[in-house]
Amino acid sequence: MTEQFKDNIEIREAVKSDLEGISEVFYESAKLHYKNDPLTFKDPKDFTSYTKKVSDFFKDRDINSFIAISGNEITGVLRYEKVQRKETGEYRGAKSIKVKDVAVKEKYRRSGIGSALMKRVLDLAQSLEYIDFVNLRVRAFNKEAVSFYEKLGFSVDSYKMSRKVNHGK
Ligand SMILES: CC(C)(COP(=O)(O)OP(=O)(O)OC[C@H]1O[C@@H](n2cnc3c(N)ncnc32)[C@H](O)[C@@H]1OP(=O)(O)O)[C@@H](O)C(=O)NCCC(=O)NCCS
């Protein structure tokens, strides 16, 4: 771990004026996902048009975000959502917190920022009596993120599998 940032991470809830800093963090992650899985993810293209998409995150009032600040810079972001599964004959109506995205600026990685963001959401889950678990999805290509989540105590509880359809090509 890079000692430089370790003791100097502030985590707080995001507000609308954080939009540009949040976009900077997610832009790198969006490029990584597009490069490795272009069937699923859109090309984030230029930063200005990407920022417009990120502003939509704030329109969805059920999705909340924590940001990490080191110095005066937004260095990491985590978006989460509280989810209640519909109770059916098969499923109990489990209540969970879903981590939608977590990303840290490349040059600040491996300095504990991602863990500090995840700890905040795990603490929130712990404080809410009705929450059964915290879950998330991670792409199979993203081995680094899998190691990160495993270190935080997450383990695989289901597989989502896909097969590409070639339509005669
Ligand atoms: C995944 C990510 C958020 C981790 O953030 P981070 O701030 O670098 O993570 P931390 O410094 O808190 O790492 C904690 C531990 O996770 C594991 N870990 C983190 N990055 C790792 C990597 N690249 N390779 C292997 N293990 C890793 C290590 O065990 C690490 O502890 P250590 O540094 O003491 O060895 C960051 O790499 C990132 O932004 N990736 C791009 C976006 C992304 O893929 N997000 C996940 C989408 S599902």
Layout: helices, strands, pairs:
Layout: H1 3-6, E1 10-13, H2 19-36, H3 47-57, E2 63-70, E3 73-84, E4 95-104, H4 113-127, E5 133-136, H5 143-151
Description:
The chain is an alpha+beta fold and 169 residues long. The protein has one domain: Aminopeptidase (3-Layer(aba) Sandwich). A 5-stranded mixed β-sheet has the order 1-2-3-4-5, sandwiched between helices. The longest helix has 18 residues. The protein is globular, with a radius of gyration of 17 Å. The model has no long low-confidence stretch (mean pLDDT 92). The structure holds coenzyme A. The site of coenzyme A (COA) has 20 residues, from helix 2, strand 4, helix 4 and helix 5.
Write down the CATH class. Alpha Beta
As residue ranges, the low-confidence spans are: none
Radius of gyration, in angstroms, nearest whole number: 17 Å
How much of the sequence lies in strands comes to 15-25%
Mean pLDDT over all positions: 92
Number of strands: 5
Q: How would you describe the shape?
A: globular
**Strand-and-helix sequence, N→C?**
HEHHEEEHEH
Tally of discrete structural domains? 1
| N-to-C span | 47 Å
Report the CATH architecture. 3-Layer(aba) Sandwich
Q: By CATH's scheme, which homologous superfamily applies?
A: Gcn5-related N-acetyltransferase (GNAT)
Task: Figure out the total of helices.
Answer: 5
Helix content: 25-40%
Largest sheet: 5 strands, mixed
- What would the CATH topology be? Aminopeptidase
Strand order of the largest sheet: 1-2-3-4-5
Query: Which molecules other than protein and nucleic acid are bound?
Result: coenzyme A
- Indicate the structural class: alpha+beta
